Amino acid sequence: MKLRRLSTRSRGFGAKLAALTRYEAAQDAGVQRTVRAIIAGVRARGDRALLEYARRLDRVKARSVRELEIGRDKLDAALKSLPAEADALRQAGDRIRKFHQRQLQQSWEYFDEDGNRLGQRVAPLERVGIYVPGGKAAYPSTVLMNAIPAKVAGVREIVMASPNPNPLVLAAAALAGVDRVIAIGGAQAVAALAYGTKSIPRVDKIVGPGNVYVAEAKRQVFGEVGIDMLAGPSEILVVSDGRTPADWVAMDLFSQAEHDELAQAILVSPDAAHLDAVERCIRSLLDRLPRRKVIEASLSARGALIHTRDLDEACEIANRVAPEHLELSVEDAERWLPKLRHAGAIFLGRWSSEAIGDYCAGPNHVLPTGGTARFSSPLGVYDFQKRSSVIGVSPAGARRLGRLAATLARGEGLTAHARSAELRLGED
């Protein structure tokens, strides 16, 4: 494995960093056409098309879509069959719930000097779809991170789609309060959730990760339903002052690289000897890991060890990358935190491994990727709430504001707007 080494002192560093961190969501014409055809099929033929795709792509043998629904009894049975894992899921779920309860937004209003009532009404979405992958690995943590904030928000019904969900995923669904679980996957599952079929209700929003077909399907149905984000491969950037044990850093880089071959793991440090030590640990520890080939492919394609002049420059590089996960593995992390402007999640100090954030710290692990942390936020309760403006105009307000509105409306050439306001002035 050839591990990339970069230095901010070298000519063309900026271009090399941009090329390394650039990731464009799948725009493969073949993927787009395939997904478009699947969505059209599900929209036109509903359950029949959904069942055909499930048989062909998920290799299920069900005779109807309803046979693919997993009842509450099976969820509870999965929970009872995994006592140790269920206890860990329960503890993690409690922490996730407590964190997200602090995000809950409330309705508010006030009255101005003319007695006009102005405010915002906050209400939960009615029905949400959660997609949970079932391909390369099982993701019970994804169930908790997507379903619990929705429940905290007050969502009435959560419908989970997951191809071939294992008992651990089912146990997590039971603990998180998922209302319905349907064993379907891929673009066909997204289409069914977006448009509804005889057996699957249409949802208001679809959240959760998936492969390129799932991501493309979410992109194509956006507008018909809401989506959380168009997520790319997982990322970690570690800023280290050189004092964190090299094997800790190496394993933290592995923790994201093992997700898939396109994941990105970057170490940034002003200590060249530390970079050397971490590289040695990477090479010595890699063979001990079951997902060695995936990690090696990820590090070879998109990984890097970057030497900087100082920690100030390291933090600035972190801001340029705007990573999904940012570990600030330094002494006195609080001192450096104000310098970091763009990241999905920031892990403070040497003891804060990204893995703890993935599973049980409490904050959500559904985070912006591909540099979108510049303008996007982690999944939260606010993603499952919507806001309506409330406007109650008093007679006095109709007179004062009506004249103002009429003046502005006539300036825009919208006479009916102006007359609508003027009719309430009590004047001819």
Describe the model.
With 428 residues, the protein is an alpha/beta fold. The protein folds into three domains: 149 residues, Nitrogenase molybdenum iron protein domain (Rossmann fold, 3-Layer(aba) Sandwich), CATH 3.40.50; 199 residues, Nitrogenase molybdenum iron protein domain (Rossmann fold, 3-Layer(aba) Sandwich), CATH 3.40.50.1980; 30 residues, no CATH class. The chain is built from 17 helices and 15 strands. The mean pLDDT is 95.
Q: What would you call the structural class? A: alpha/beta
Task: Give, in spatial order, the strands making up the sheet with the most strands.
Answer: 1-12-11-10-13-14
The CATH class of the largest domain, by name, is Alpha Beta
Number of helical segments with 4 or more residues: 17
Largest sheet: 6 strands, parallel
Integer tally of domains: 3
* Cα radius of gyration in angstroms: 25 Å
**Termini gap:** 83 Å
Shape: globular
Q: Averaged pLDDT, please?
A: 95
CATH topology type of the largest domain: Rossmann fold
Beta content comes to 15-25%
Looking at CATH, the homologous superfamily of the largest domain is Nitrogenase molybdenum iron protein domain
